[in-house]
Design a protein that fits this description.
The complex is a heterodimer. By secondary structure, chain A is an alpha+beta fold. Chain A folds into four domains: about 110 residues, Rossmann fold (3-Layer(aba) Sandwich), CATH 3.40.50.20; about 60 residues, ATP-grasp fold, A domain (Dna Ligase, domain 1), CATH 3.30.1490.20; about 180 residues, ATP-grasp fold, B domain (D-amino Acid Aminotransferase, Chain A, domain 1, 2-Layer Sandwich), CATH 3.30.470; about 130 residues, no CATH class. Chain A is built from 27 helices and 20 strands. In chain A, a hairpin with a 5-residue loop joins strand 10 and strand 11. Chain B has two domains: about 150 residues, Carbamoyl-phosphate synthase small subunit, N-terminal domain (Glucose Oxidase, domain 1, 3-Layer(bba) Sandwich), CATH 3.50.30; about 220 residues, Rossmann fold (3-Layer(aba) Sandwich). In chain B, the strands form three sheets. Chain B has an eleven-stranded mixed beta sheet with strand order 11-10-13-12-14-15-20-19-18-16-17, with helices on both faces. Chain B has a seven-stranded mixed barrel with strand order 1-2-8-6-4-3-9. In chain B, strands 5-7 form a two-stranded parallel sheet. The radius of gyration of chain B is 20 Å and the shape is globular. Classes of the chains: A alpha+beta, B alpha/beta. Chains A and B meet through strand 11, helix 9 and helix 20 of A and helix 3 and strand 16 of B.
Chain lengths: ~675, ~375
């Protein structure tokens, strides 16, 4: 069979490169089945347009006119429209409406267009849901104050009022009580050009859960995976942090929603992959069907990568008539595609927003997707996957710290007259060198004198960065309440300030489970920050570092939280500061052996003495102690130990396989993730 | 506190304490379901087993008052990667750790559960012990009786008959609802949700101990008989098999899990032990009559040997798509059929629920 595949076209905001991924998988899958693939795509910068993916390739505008010319020339037997996203689907619909498919005898593969229309048209979808007894959010169209009055007692509160045909939704709002609905509703009726408002149940704050499901032409239905949004209802799922599988749903709830999803895909008659979005009341068994995407979507790409199950590949095979039990599970090689993946890890997806490129853009998130991509992380715990995902964003923030909320320290540079300090430094080194011959007592006296001289040398403090104060509590609460791309750091800062989980849950409506996991990370963060003051011996330090690695902190974050990394280049310890360290080593109680080691380290290099440098926060906070305190010596040996331990431990992770079956069957897939565990699947 | 899992082949895993203090012995098996730990912990078919859950984050939605599948915590021990201390779900009343402590059950967490799963997958299930002291644990393990040589059914079966209605378990003193079809349940390790589903489908379940004779069951004039799931090797249950043999042909019979194996033995077939069993919520089963595939909830270590059915009245009706083991049989002319998986789900997918209404229809048709 010769199959025409419509590609995904240009990559636009609100649509990542997922359709290229799906389309490429589909082309390969069709070729595996012995079909000839003709591809039309307007975007040559894609993988699917690479040589070898299709048998014939047309880089042409994705319009009816051009598509007809390709059809006329290639005379394909069939057209596969459901794998190129909305672009492909729209074009296929137009080709069908223009009678072009009939004219050339091209059969449409996969889900029938009628089913797709049914799922995408709001009214016919709501009707279908009513037919099969699946709940959709109640809504009322109101045109007169009398009608409004009549529903005051029926409407579930809070409800949303949307006036029809007003500019930018003026006159709309959320009503929590009858009185509010009466007031806002009447105003809305006046403001609406057609005197019409829609009153709808508000699902703000409900859990948002998705099911990625598949069906074949024989009616076999399976779930590939379910996902729980960390951001509750109100934020587009493409803009939400998403976790797979769901974490806070009991078995009963999980399967109640799964059954609903399968019922929907069955009643729509989907052939291939489909995404069902549901809103779930966090305090009852109530749920509503929000939306159905009757095709391979961004969520399918995520579900594919999250589970290892190739949704697009299998969808393409279903489209050409294969049933799920006839398709091999490519991952295990021994089982069939007709099963439901079992995960033995946790998936965290964080959207990637372009606000670093559009600095003045409105960062608030709501029902219109603003992300242009996403990162997905896999690990054995939520915490570790979450930390990996943050790192994967490749933005300024590499962990839970964010200066916007935490404030930033004042950064200073200490400058002393170079010649003076150079001289003193050399003298200090000599004094230390002669300590063994002259005896410690003599050396000590000499050093004490030198220390005095140091203190007398004038130095000036240059302010490199003024820094800024932490965000005040009220503003921070606002940030928690109003979703933006930076909310996760606001949540972290709230927890860091000691606000308890119920408080933050009340403001943000983020499930306490996620908040507690973030709190777990912050507890480690706090212990790392306080390590130097609080930890007893090296064993405790080593154990803490290993705990930090295990829960998901990257080595650079551990290093910097422990104070062993400089925040800015200006803060490298200059030579004269080092000399001061040496002076104060006397009182530190270091062994002679350690003293020697510190000394030789000092002599070895200028730019990278000992451990590099001192953390900016530490310098600004402890500047006075740097000069006199005996802790300097301890601090130096502590830093040395920190570096040693991090270097030793950071090479410990193993690799675990994503095998679709939680280890039940032997698999040969080369898909792994790194984690701090015992056994390595990759050998 | 440090805690260890020792396997009978000498392997040792180190983890942290979970649940009650002490030690526990059992056959170490794994379940790949991502939800349903409360149902698993109260499923009598896990008696004598230490259950490892392959999903690493367990206890997230806590323990509630409604989702227990029996009155006891059934497995002898629990192995998880990470148990959640502070659960989050509107029905949760306690954490999994609290439940285990309350019921005196020993568990272990913080070990590489995937490594252990692969170990079992490659070497088959084996006996194991969870303990705080390696030497002592080793001794206990060496002295304990193997799972295969132990009878569990009498222990988990009800001691006296009872009725099931809307409120759940009620005494036999209550009058059975005459408007409902009478379902006699032979309890070898029943899960409550089987009763809930049958009650919902219009039945009046009456539950009998596994030792009840065929005559006694028939004296209650049931419209149908259910052979329940349960733990252990079906080949050891000669007297129960005899009961099933005596019931065969008298009334419609439906078997679930162990019930499937009992029916097989009753007609002269044989069962064998699977290397590491089927335990999870994602097992595809193909119905050979309709060609349809259903995703099923499974928990069994033994399976029917299809060759042993060659000279019996039974035929294989369903196969597992993963390993082609027998998932369902039917005895021609006896109105007896059974399936190896769990239509009651809890935990797992609800796709096989039609079995309840189907059997009720059979019972109804037979009554007329």
């Amino acid at each position: 069979m010769k199959v025409l595949v419509i590609g995904s076209g240009p990559i636009v905001i609100g649509q990542a490169a997922e359709f290229d991924y799906a389309g490429t998988q589909a082309c390969k899958s069709l070729k595996e089945e012995g079909h000839e693939v003709v591809l039309i795509n307007s975007n040559p910068a894609t993988i699917m347009t690479d040589p070898g993916v299709s048998d014939a390739l047309y880089i042409e505008p994705l319009t009816v006119e051009f598509c007809e010319r390709v059809i006329a020339r290639e005379k394909p037997d069939a057209l596969l429209p459901t794998l190129g996203g909305q672009t492909g689907l729209n074009l296929a619909t137009q080709l069908s409406d223009h009678g072009i498919l009939d004219k050339y005898g091209v059969k449409l593969l996969g889900t029938p267009l009628s089913a797709i229309k049914k799922a995408e048209d709001r009214e016919s979808f709501r009707n279908l849901m009513r037919e099969i007894n699946e709940p959709v959010p109640e809504s009322w169209i109101i045109q007169t104050p009398d009608e409004l009055h009549a529903i005051l007692d029926i409407v579930p509160y809070p409800c949303i009022i949307r006036p029809a045909y007003t500019l930018g939704g003026t006159g709309g709002g959320i009503a929590n009580t009858k009185d509010e609905l009466w007031e806002i509703g009447q105003k809305g009726l006046k403001l609406s050009m057609r005197s019409q408002i829609m009153v709808e149940r508000s699902l703000l704050g409900w859990k948002e859960v998705e099911y990625e499901v598949m069906r074949d032409s024989a009616g076999n239905c399976i779930t590939i995976c379910n996902m729980e949004n960390l951001d509750p209802m109100g934020v587009h799922t493409g803009d939400s942090i998403v976790i797979a599988p769901s974490q806070t749903l009991s078995d009963l709830e999980y399967h109640m929603l799964r059954t609903a999803s399968l019922k929907i895909i069955q009643s729509l008659g989907i052939e291939g992959g489909c995404n069902v979005q549901l809103a779930v009341n966090p305090d009852s068994f109530d749920y509503y069907i929000i939306e159905v995407n009757p095709r391979v979507s961004r969520s399918s790409a995520l579900a594919s990568k999250a589970t290892g199950y190739p949704i697009a590949r299998v969808s393409a095979k279903i489209a050409v008539g294969k049933t799920l039990d006839e398709i091999e599970n490519q991952v295990t090689g021994t089982t069939k595609a007709c099963f439901e993946p079992a995960l033995d890890y946790c998936i965290v997806k964080i959207p990637r927003w372009p606000f670093d490129k559009f600095a003045s853009g409105d960062r608030s998130l709501f029902t219109q997707m603003k992300a242009t991509g996403e990162v997905m992380a896999i690990d054995r715990s939520f915490e570790a996957a979450f930390m990996k995902a943050i790192r994967g964003l490749e933005i300024k923030q590499k962990d839970l710290r964010h200066t916007k909320f935490q404030g930033s320290p004042r950064i200073i540079r200490v400058e002393r007259p170079a010649t003076e300090t150079e001289k003193l430094f050399n003298e200090t080194m000599q004094a230390l060198g002669s300590a063994k011959e002259e005896g410690r007592e003599a050396a000590r006296e000499k050093l004490a004198a030198l220390k005095q001289k140091f203190a007398e040398v004038e130095y000036k403090i240059v302010i490199v960065d003024e820094g800024h104060a932490p965000m005040n509590d009220d503003d921070l609460k606002h940030e928690l309440n109003k979703p933006t791309d930076e909310r996760l750091w606001a949540v972290a800062e709230g927890l860091r300030r000691g606000w308890d989980v119920p408080t933050i849950n009340k403001i943000s409506r983020i499930d306490p489970w996620f908040l507690r996991k973030i709190q777990n990370l912050l507890l480690i963060e706090k212990r790392l920050t306080k390590a130097f003051e609080t930890l007893g011996d090296s064993e405790e330090l080593s154990a803490l570092i290993s705990e930090a690695f295990l829960i998901g902190f990257p080595s650079n974050t551990i290093k910097s939280l422990l104070g062993a990394e400089t925040a800015t280049a200006e803060l490298k310890i200059s030579k004269d500061m080092r000399a001061n360290f040496v002076v104060s080593l006397q009182d530190s109680g270091l062994s002679e052996e350690k003293l020697d080691r510190v000394k030789s380290n000092l002599e070895r290099s200028d730019a990278q003495p000992l451990v590099g440098s001192v953390h900016a926060n530490y310098v600004s906070e402890h500047l006075h102690t740097l000069w006199t305190d005996k802790t300097i010596g301890q601090y130096l040996s502590y830093l040395e130990l920190v570096i040693q331990e991090i270097e030793r431990q950071k090479v410990m992770p193993v690799f675990k396989m994503v095998d679709t079956c939680a280890g039940e069957f032997e698999s040969g897939t080369p898909y792994y993730y790194g984690t701090f565990e015992q056994e390595d699947d990759a050998h | 506190m440090k805690r260890y899992l020792l396997l009978s082949d000498g392997t040792t895993y180190e983890g942290k304490a979970l649940g009650a203090d002490g030690f526990t012995v059992g056959e170490v098996v794994f379940n790949t379901g991502m939800t349903g730990y409360q149902e698993i912990l109260s499923d009598p078919s896990y008696a004598g087993q230490i259950v490892l859950l392959t999903y690493p984050l367990i206890g997230n939605y806590g323990i509630n008052d409604d989702d227990f599948e029996s009155d006891r915590i059934q497995p002898s021990g629990l192995i998880v990667r990470e148990a959640c201390d502070v659960p989050s779900n509107w029905r949760s009343t306690k954490s999994i750790h609290q439940l285990l402590v309350e019921r005196g059950k020993v568990g272990i967490q913080g070990l590489d559960t995937r490594a252990i799963t692969k170990h079992i997958r490659n070497g088959g299930v084996s006996m194991g012990v969870i303990c705080d002291d390696i030497d002592r644990g080793r001794t206990i393990l060496n002295q304990s009786k193997s799972y295969d040589d132990t009878d569990f059914v009498l222990d988990v079966s009800t001691k006296s008959p009872y009725l099931w209605n809307k409120e759940g378990k009620v005494s036999m003193a209550e009058a059975p609802d005459p408007s409902r079809l009478k379902l006699a349940v032979l309890d070898c390790g029943l899960k409550f949700n089987i009763l809930r589903r049958f009650y919902r489908a219009g039945c009046q379940p009456i539950v009998f101990p596994a030792t009840t004779s065929a005559e006694e069951i028939l004296s209650w004039k049931p419209d149908g008989i259910l052979l329940s799931p349960g733990p252990g090797d079906p080949a050891r249950l000669e007297s129960v098999v005899q009961t099933v043999r005596d019931l065969l042909g008298k009334k419609p019979i439906f078997g679930i899990c162990l019930g499937n194996q009992l029916l097989c033995h009753a007609i002269g077939g044989k069962t064998f032990k699977l290397k590491f069993g089927h335990r999870g919520a994602n097992h595809p089963v193909k119905d050979l009559l309709t060609g349809k595939v259903t995703i099923t909830s499974q928990n069994h270590g033994y399976a029917i040997d299809p060759n042993s059915l060659a000279h019996t009245d039974a035929e294989v009706t369903q196969l597992n798509l993963n390993d082609e083991t027998v998932e369902g049989i039917r005895v021609k002319d006896a109105q007896a059929s059974s399936i190896q998986y769990h239509p009651e789900a809890a935990p797992g997918p609800w796709d096989s629920r039609p079995y309840f209404t189907d059997f009720v229809q059979t019972m109804e048709a037979n009554r007329k």
